[in-house]
Amino acid sequence: MAAGGAVFDPSRTAGRAGFDQWRTFWTAARLGWLMEANWTDPLLFAIYSIAKPLFGVFILVFMVSVISDASSAALRGFVVIGSALWSFVVSGIAGLAQSILDDRERYRMLRYVYVSPSDFSVVVLGRGVARVGVGLIGAGISLAVGIVFLGAGVQAGGIDIPLLVAAMALGLASVVAIGIFMAAICIQTTQDSWHYPEAVAGALFIVSGAVFPLRVLPDPIQAFGLLSPLCWWIEGVRRALVPASPTGIGGPGSLFERLVGTATPGTGTVLVVLLATGALVTLAAILAFRASERRAKDRGLFDRTTGS
């Protein structure tokens, strides 16, 4: 019975589920963008968001040039592409997890967000996608500057567009899935949770082949890297942009070569393994988030603030 004695008509909401989900996502994404920018001037925020990953690329390229005394475009392309993509990974992983921490610790609003009519997972995804977008823009600009000014070896006519689109789409899904997994963990944690997303991103950086190939690592760590979709994503993007770039997965003496019998994975292998590992990570992230949500609801964790 509605207010004033009117009878509620369920047919009024029929077929609106998809629209309501989209409206929830868009509202959460817009709020996340404003919060990420701290309601500051858009130009100032854009300069800051671009400068951080851009100068990170410059530092890495300079270090590699000095230490290795190598000036090949393939080597520069290896470092530029890997470091540019990794700035996007950090933003993607941290964005979804820190949206939980912001609402719980800083604004004390997580409990109210959870009991709202909106789907909680859609709200978290929308809030986190703002930082994902910032990271994607920064990565794109860093990559463009690296190609134009650092001689990354990318030739416009030699770019494999289908491979690039497929690898970026699968990689984006994998990054978001890892961010959801980290959000599930942050729902359960207490003190010093702010450091967890970047700590995980730093650990994955070692096994991703972003700035050095996996073959320089011990076999157990190489095996972990081969199971990570991030490693195959970066490999796919490198291959699409700079076909002559050194492989970050295989190479002489690598674990991949000993397992498969070839030093360099084929393009089909890269996409198939990226799809398979990304699907497994996505499934694990969804299950972990749902389990974390149920446990938090049962134990009243949405009402908790840790003061961290």
**Total beta strands:** 0
Q: Which series of helices and strands comes N to C?
A: HHHHHHHHHHH
Alpha-carbon distance between the two ends: 44 Å
Strand content: under 5%
Category by helix and strand content: mainly alpha
Shape: globular
**Are there runs of 5+ residues with pLDDT below 50, and where?**
8-13
Q: Quote the average pLDDT.
A: 80
Proportion of helical residues: over 70%
Number of DSSP helical runs: 11
How many whole angstroms does the radius of gyration measure?
A: 22 Å
> Can you summarize the main beta sheet?
none
Topology overview:
Blueprint: H1 17-36, H2 42-68, H3 73-106, H4 110-115, H5 120-149, H6 161-188, H7 196-206, H8 219-226, H9 229-241, H10 255-260, H11 267-299
Polypeptide structure, described:
This protein has 308 residues and is mainly alpha-helical. Helices cover 70% and strands 0% of the residues. It has eleven helices and no strands. Helix 2 (42-68) crosses helix 3 (73-106), helix 2 (42-68) packs across helix 5 (120-149) and helix 3 runs antiparallel to helix 5 (120-149). The longest helix has 34 residues, at 73-106. The radius of gyration is 22 Å and the shape is globular. It starts with 16 loop residues before the first helix and ends in a 9-residue tail after the last helix. Residues 8-13 have low confidence and may be disordered.
